[in-house]
Write a structure and sequence with these properties.
Blueprint: E1 16-21, E2 26-31, E3 40-44, E4 47-51, H1 54-59, H2 72-78, E5 92-93, E6 98-103, E7 106-111, H3 125-143, E8 150-153, H4 158-170, E9 176-182, H5 190-200, E10 203-209, H6 214-224, H7 233-243, E11 249-251, H8 256-260, H9 264-278, H10 282-291, H11 293-296, H12 302-312, H13 315-322, H14 328-334, H15 343-348, H16 358-384, E12 389-391, H17 397-405, H18 408-411, H19 419-424, H20 431-435, H21 445-450, H22 454-461, H23 474-486, H24 490-509, E13 526-530
Parallel strand pairs: 8-9, 8-11, 9-10, 11-12
Antiparallel strand pairs: 1-2, 2-6, 3-4, 3-5, 6-7, 10-13
Length: 531
């Protein structure tokens, strides 16, 4: 009433809201700055239909449910559809930090917040470390405000360990920690999580995921609204299910890599920038190899072909391509309809950044798209499926703003990833956690595809009557699964996983396309251990 839409600047935390102002006959939709909560909408003939879940929009009966073929290549590439589109025709996401005002049949969208570019050129490493520590303590303390049981999702990496350490710093309560792993302990970080839990004296719980069934995928795809492109959603879903029996709110370390530049591809971006300077024309040489792929392919491995493709792209698009499961050429071969899409186009829709460097663009892409459209959505939807609220202190917008403005030399260094975060919490986090190299969360996709999901793969996914046969070339799909079964390769496994979940998702929304019956399993696939 007092400040109009500018009230959004005074909010802190996660939200998706709708406010109707009866006097001015206007509806205000807004989403939090980092996109921790989802908000979808459809505009049709002056009408606005909105909800926090796509299925609610379709349930209105006012919007036809149809797959958007133009968004399909993005899902296959990234495992998610970058906003504002979704995989449903005519249904859009409100962007993080965006407000939509609808009045008298007209809608107007504006961004009230974007991640800032590096600006504090004179900031020293020591002063930045001190300020980051202050902001971290404040962000964690704010998210401990709760009248219900609260715990921490603990992976054993620096991000969640820092959150737990800060929680102990600002609260006297003994925390509860929850970790997830697999039967093959080489894939997870449970050993490290146990050591961190012991260090901080938490009441520790572990969940062991022993497999994945078709029924579970159907449930998760239903909650996700769009296809389950990330296999890590499975352990997140199971961990949330277990934790909800004991707590109502969970703090997570989500967003640490995007905020503090902790991914390997951030370091790779630096090296590729240096190579561009040292080898003039490298991009065009790579583009020549890419265009001549038919001649070069017999002598190039798939990894080298992807490397040549990445090097041929504009620097601002390279890291989006690095995280893509398919190259643009592979997408062309897989789809029955020529795509109006390229990774380069997807990553090019960015505002002008102050320093114009490709690393700044990579960090912007990670914060505004990978984090918002993928990682935060995965955690929110898999936890809320069990009515568990996940809070992520490392994406507190005041912390993100401060770190984003720091000069890149403070965030990316030869000392290793996330040097400012490591220094800021070195008195809290055990040294072995601070100094250990980054370890990705590996999921046993191949074992699941060859085990409990193999019947569905053979009888439905690889069938000529596959639900997605109108979109994907069946022979290419069969070749991918055959390659995955012959030779274990993480990239091929991820490609097959995305195709599998596209089929599962399609069957949920447009059932009975493939009449083949599938034997289902009642075997319990989750075990738990309380420390």
């Amino acid at each position: 009433e007092e400040e109009g839409v500018d009230f959004l600047h005074k909010l802190r935390g996660m939200f998706a809201l709708a406010l109707y102002d009866r006097r001015s006959e206007r509806l205000i939709l807004a989403r939090d700055r980092l996109g921790q909560k989802p908000l979808y909408y459809t505009l049709r003939d002056g009408e606005l239909i909105f909800a926090s879940e796509i299925k609610a929009i379709h349930e209105s009966g006012l919007v036809d449910k149809a797959l958007d073929p133009e968004s399909l290549p993005a899902y296959l590439s990234f495992g998610f559809v970058p906003g504002p589109r979704t995989l449903f025709t005519g249904v859009f996401k409100l962007a993080p930090g965006e407000v939509l005002v609808h009045s008298r049949g007209e809608a107007r969208k504006t961004r009230y917040w974007r991640p800032p570019a590096a600006a504090n050129a004179d900031e020293s490493f020591d002063s930045a470390t001190r300020r980051v520590r202050e902001l971290l303590e404040e962000a964690v303390a704010l998210r401990l405000m709760s009248e219900v049981p609260l715990g921490v999702f603990l992976s054993g990496g620096i991000d969640s360990s820092a959150v737990l350490g800060l929680m102990r710093q600002v609260s006297d309560a003994r925390p509860r920690t929850f970790s997830v792993g697999f039967e093959d302990g080489r894939l997870d970080e449970l050993d490290y999580a146990r050591r961190v839990a012991e260090h901080f004296g938490s009441e520790h719980h572990e969940v062991i995921v022993r497999g994945c069934t078709l029924e579970q995928l159907e449930t998760m795809n239903w909650h996700q609204d769009e296809p389950l492109g990330d296999p890590a959603a499975v352990p997140t879903f199971r961990l949330s299910e277990y934790a909800r029996r004991r707590i109502t709110v969970a703090l997570t370390g989500e967003g640490g890599d995007e905020t503090f530049a902790g991914y390997d591809h951030h370091q790779l971006c630096r090296r590729m920038e240096a190579a561009d300077i040292a080898v003039p024309g490298m991009r065009w040489l790579a583009r020549g190899a890419r265009l001549g792929e038919g001649l070069v392919a017999p002598w190039l491995t798939p990894t080298l072909r992807k490397g040549a493709w990445i090097a041929s792209l504009h620097p601002s698009a390279r890291m989006a391509a690095w995280t893509s499961a398919f190259t643009d050429r592979e997408i062309e071969r897989l789809l029955r309809r020529k795509p109006v899409f390229s990774v380069e186009d997807a990553a090019a829709d960015q505002p002008e950044l102050a320093d114009g460097g490709s690393l700044s663009r990579v960090l912007y892409w990670d914060l505004s798209s990978t984090l918002a459209d993928h990682l935060l959505m995965k955690v929110d939807k898999m936890s809320m499926a069990h009515s568990l609220e996940a809070r992520s202190p490392l994406v507190d917008h005041e912390l993100v703003e401060y770190v984003a403005r720091l000069p890149l030399k403070l965030k990316i260094s030869a000392r290793g990833s996330k040097p400012i975060l490591r220094e800021a919490v070195k008195d809290l986090v055990p040294r072995e956690i601070l100094e250990r190299p980054k370890h990705g969360f590996d999921v046993p996709v191949r074992r699941w595809l060859a085990g409990s999901l193999s019947s569905f793969v053979d009888s439905v996914v690889l069938s000529d009557r596959s639900p997605v046969a109108d979109y994907l070339e069946p022979n290419v799909v069969r070749a991918l699964f055959a390659s995955m079964r012959r030779t274990p390769k993480p990239r091929t496994e991820l490609q097959c996983w995305r195709i599998l979940n596209l089929v599962v998702w399609h069957e949920l929304h447009w059932p009975a396309r493939c009449a083949t019956s599938v034997q289902r399993s009642d075997e319990p696939l989750v075990g738990s251990v309380a420390g």
